[in-house]
């Protein structure tokens, strides 16, 4: 045997297992993203929000625009038990004989019939020397010397001693007060107050019209029977509209603006930055100075200008002007990032080799340069989405963006802040959805930035 003969080396399985497997750039990035638990969980939150917006309406088939004025501003835990009542019949009222006593306020004040969300009917004793009466309603027990509540109206005759309240009655406890008036309309110094517990009611006709029951089942409901009103998982707003359905519709608007606008201005920035970075020199200088000029433009001023140019009047939703303003004024950030990447990539050997082989500039940019900036572009887009969602919410909140009746999360926050002290759920839920979505996109952007960084290695 020759002295130069070689012997095969024994196969070491442990060495092979310890060696790093061959992975493509995108597969390696995917594995690093999965290792980042916060970013990976945020990815599922983002997908969940998209499903909530575009698949949810097919599951929760409730019209977001249907109003229920008898069930306004109800939280999710509100009582849904209602009593079937007779259809409303006009009330003629009560007329009392001329009073004979010396009292300064009605001696008795009582409810006629049952106090329901349909109507509350009151009657009282006449007061001597009174030329009319005024009726007040309060949600708290009125104290001595304090206001009696909301003035509902009254009568202009000393013998007309009844009043029917049908003003936005809710199933709660009210305190009604009656004050006598002199011939000058001045109130007497004393008032009579009564506590009234209002019962939630509905009629069979209303239940059929709203689609709560079928006409075939209407025969089982008689006046006085109990009835379960439809469930609203997140409650209702100030017009009795289902908050969950409106959040789904609002998610469509907010996510549409938050995704479409960044997609358009990031694409514009990629093209602009690629051209600027590849051509360089005086062209690069001129293009970048123009980008600096666009950055300095005031966004709100142009938002107002675009609303005027598109003919968007007061109370109309400015979705299109908002998209145009975002696209025209937000691309310089992406352009700067892509320009920086292109300035590095154009010095690479494969780019020079492609140029020597006769590749034209457009193909060189599209085929070799832009694909190598996709990591930066994807991260830029991911960070641009929450910023745009927050911008839309802010503009809608101040009345410059989406306005009623079109729902968006920002517009719903604008509506909810007006009643946040009494019905906080109208503000909490849309604000919570904005916060979760913005946080999820930010965490996902952080994870993508780390995963797409070629200098990092999976498992390190």
Write the topology of this structure.
Blueprint: H1 13-18, H2 25-35, H3 37-54, H4 56-59, E1 81-84, E2 109-112, E3 120-124, E4 132-138, E5 150-155, E6 162-165, E7 173-181, E8 187-197, E9 201-202, H5 204-209, E10 226-228, H6 243-279, H7 281-295, H8 299-309, H9 319-345, H10 349-356, H11 361-369, H12 374-397, H13 409-416, H14 425-451
Parallel strand pairs: 1-9
Antiparallel strand pairs: 1-10, 2-3, 3-6, 4-5, 4-7, 7-8
Helix pairs in contact: 2-14, 3-6, 3-14, 6-7, 6-9, 6-12, 7-9, 8-9, 9-12, 12-13, 12-14, 13-14
Protein architecture, described:
The protein has helices at residues 13-18, 25-35, 37-54, 56-59, 204-209, 243-279, 281-295, 299-309, 319-345, 349-356, 361-369, 374-397, 409-416, 425-451, and strands spanning 81-84, 109-112, 120-124, 132-138, 150-155, 162-165, 173-181, 187-197, 201-202, 226-228. It is α+β, with helices and mostly antiparallel strands and 460 residues long. The strands form three sheets. Strands 5-4-7-8 form a four-stranded antiparallel β-sheet, with no helix packed on it.
């Amino acid at each position: 045997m020759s002295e130069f003969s070689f012997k095969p080396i024994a196969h070491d399985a442990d060495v092979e297992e310890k060696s790093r497997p061959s992975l493509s750039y995108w597969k390696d990035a995917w594995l690093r993203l999965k290792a980042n638990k916060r970013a990976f969980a945020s990815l599922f939150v983002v997908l969940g929000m998209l499903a909530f917006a575009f698949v949810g309406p097919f599951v929760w088939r409730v019209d977001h625009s249907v109003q229920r004025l008898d069930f306004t501003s109800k939280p999710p835990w509100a009582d849904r038990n209602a009593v079937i009542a007779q259809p409303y019949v006009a009330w003629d009222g009560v007329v009392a004989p001329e009073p004979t006593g010396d009292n300064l306020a009605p001696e008795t004040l009582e409810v006629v019939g049952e106090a329901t969300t349909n109507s509350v009917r009151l009657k009282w004793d006449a007061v001597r020397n009174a030329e009319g009466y005024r009726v007040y309603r309060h949600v708290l027990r009125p104290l001595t010397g304090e206001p009696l509540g909301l003035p509902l109206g009254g009568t202009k005759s000393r013998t007309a001693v009844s009043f029917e309240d049908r003003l936005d009655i809710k199933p709660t406890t009210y305190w009604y007060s009656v004050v006598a008036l002199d011939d000058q309309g001045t109130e007497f110094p004393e008032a009579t107050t009564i506590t009234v517990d209002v019962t939630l009611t509905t009629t069979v006709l209303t239940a059929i019209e709203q689609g709560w029951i079928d006409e075939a089942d209407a025969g089982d409901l008689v006046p006085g029977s109990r009835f379960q009103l439809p469930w609203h998982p997140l409650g209702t707003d100030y017009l009795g509209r289902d908050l969950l359905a409106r959040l789904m519709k609002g998610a469509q608007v907010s996510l549409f603006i938050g995704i479409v606008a960044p997609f358009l201005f990031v694409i514009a920035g990629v093209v602009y930055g690629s051209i600027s970075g590849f051509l360089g020199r005086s062209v690069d200088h001129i293009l970048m100075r123009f980008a600096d000029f666009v950055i300095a433009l005031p966004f709100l001023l142009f938002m107002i200008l675009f609303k005027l140019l598109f003919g968007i009047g007061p109370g109309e939703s400015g979705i299109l002007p908002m998209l145009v303003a975002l696209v025209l004024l937000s691309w310089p950030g992406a352009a700067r990032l892509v320009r920086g990447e292109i300035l590095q990539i154009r010095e690479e050997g494969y780019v020079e080799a492609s140029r020597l082989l006769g590749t034209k500039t457009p193909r060189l940019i599209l085929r070799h340069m832009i694909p190598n900036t996709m990591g930066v572009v994807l991260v830029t887009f991911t960070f641009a989405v929450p910023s745009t969602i927050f911008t839309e919410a802010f503009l809608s909140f101040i009345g410059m963006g989406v306005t009623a009746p079109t729902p968006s999360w920002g517009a719903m926050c604008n509506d909810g802040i007006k009643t946040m002290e009494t019905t906080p759920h109208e503000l909490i839920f849309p604000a919570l959805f904005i916060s979760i979505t913005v946080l999820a996109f930010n965490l996902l952007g952080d994870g993508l930035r780390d995963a797409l960084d070629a200098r990092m290695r999976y498992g390190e």
